[in-house]
Amino acid sequence: MASTKRLLKERASIARDPIPYVTFHDDDDDGDERMSDSSSSSTDINRWRFVLALDPNHDVLGDAVEIGVAANSPYCNIPASLPSSSSSSSSSRGGAVGVLLASVTRATKVSRKSTSSEVAAGGGGGGGQSSSSSSSSSSSEGRSAYFAFQLDFPPNYPFKPPVITVLGPTYHPNIKQTTGEMCDSVLTGEGWGPTLNVRKICMRLRKFLCEPDPDHPLEDDIARLLVEQPGEYAKIAHKHALENATMAKAMDAMARGKQAK
């Protein structure tokens, strides 16, 4: 099957050139040997699980347009000056709140124009230095947050995208809390194209976590809070990440995988 052959090649490529901020389920025991094992069953090769580390120190690995800016994410860093709520006055949208709203605004605008070429432009191994000043600023600040994902690839991949499930509780307007379903213009929408691959999916997921899109929510209440009270949203998102987006919990969620209903 063409999709199996393609996925085996992708697995071998990632084994040779790992993605710095991603740990795959196959990495924990046998390392590169298992990741590049061409004898993997079709079930194994069509279902990938991994943990993505959202770490501000990785912001320099790519352009902010492609991988987002973790230093601006409340999952990693909530500014001490960020208020618990925002008013409608323009002054309340300066400073830290302005950074958060700017990230949301950029995400909303870009998502409407996203195509597969947006992600394909950054399809290397992720080792290049960023030309974006916003990516490099504050790269050493903040904590890491960890998120587990499962990709289930269809027989006609890469012409159709994998089904992506977020494993474990996540506070994000574009992630359904009860199922882990996610909504993204590229990964689950019309922006998908056959030039995308697992490496680019991981890049896009990092951006997705950094830049929520309140215009296309799966959780209306979270999206509303993000737009109307960004300070309160940031506070809740940060607290939720401290409690749930730990390495131990993400690794456990990855090991368990998507639970059958």
**SS field, number of helical segments:** 11
Strand numbers in spatial order across the main sheet: 1-2-3-4
- Beta fraction: 5-15%
| Overall mean pLDDT | 80
Fraction of helical residues: 25-40%
Oligomer: single chain
The helix/strand series, from N terminus to C terminus, equals HEHHEHHHHEEHHHH
Q: Show unreliable segments.
A: 30-34, 83-97, 105-116, 123-140
Radius of gyration: 18 Å
- Could you say which structural class the secondary elements and strand pairing correspond to? alpha+beta
State the end-to-end CA separation.
29 Å
Largest sheet: 4 strands, antiparallel
Shape: globular
Number of strands: 4
Description:
This protein is an alpha+beta fold. The protein has eleven helices and four strands. It has helices spanning 2-16, 32-35, 42-45, 64-67, 95-113, 116-120, 133-136, 198-210, 220-228, 230-244, 247-256; strands spanning 22-24, 47-54, 145-152, 163-167. Strands 1-2-3-4 form a four-stranded antiparallel beta sheet, sandwiched between helices. The two termini are 29 Å apart. Mean pLDDT is 80; it is low at 30-34, 83-97, 105-116 and 123-140.
